[in-house]
Amino acid sequence: MFSGSPFTKGNRRSLVFHLAFFSVATALALALISDGVTPAFAQNNKPQRQSKPASAAADVARGRYLVEDVAVCGQCHTPRDRNGNLDRTRWLQGGSVPYLPARPDMDWPINAPRIGGTPPANDADMIKLLTTGIWTDGNRLRLPMPQFRMDRGDAEAVVAYLKTVTPQP
Is 46 exposed, middle or buried (0-12, 13-18, 19+ CB in 10 A)? Predict the structure, then answer.
């Protein structure tokens, strides 16, 4: 090394150690984040049984979370009051699509259908829509409807929740 270089023999060793430590720590963090490493916990050999009502209630709660907080379905599928606020008394009962396309589009929907209460298709078709983006006619839904690719469990939870929604009198 030339004179005045920061890479003296001692500094190089320190740099190599720090790089190795950082690499191992990063790999470990990525493995934990990606669920590649399963932490060991004390195990109970008795299978846990969940009652059907508790499981159904959990599905509905998960579906509600997905519909209201993740996919925000109510933004299009719920009518609005005179002030432009969502009308929670008619939650998910269909409404005017509040968005316009960036460019004129003759295929742009004006209304979003009712999805609460009795969804517009049977459970299997609704799950197919939510997992593949394909509707009962074999076509993808028109924009602005997102082309969801939910896993089956999430799609089943969404359908379970939608079936519990009833308009208020």
Answer: exposed
- Give CA–CA dist 168/101, Å, rounded: 32
What angle do the packed helices 123-132 and 152-162 form, to 10 degrees?
130
The domain containing residue 135 runs over which residues?
Answer: 52-162
| Three-class SS state of 111 | strand
Residues 75 and 154 in one domain: yes
The verdict on whether omega for the bond into residue 113 sits within 30 degrees of 0, i.e. cis, is: no
Quote the CA–CA distance of 14 and 17 in Å, as a whole number: 5
Around 98, how many Cα atoms within 13 Å sit in the side-chain half-sphere? 14
pLDDT for position 55: 83
Q: Please return the burial class of 161, using the count of CB atoms within 10 Å of its CB with bins 0-12, 13-18 and 19+.
A: buried
Q: Are residues 70 and 153 in the same domain?
A: yes
Report the length, in residues, of the chain: 169
pLDDT mean by block of 10 residues, the chain; 169 residues: 54 61 56 50 49 76 94 93 93 91 90 92 95 93 89 96 86
β-bridge mates for residue 80, sequence order: 86
In a domain, 16, yes or no: yes
What's the domain count of the chain?
2
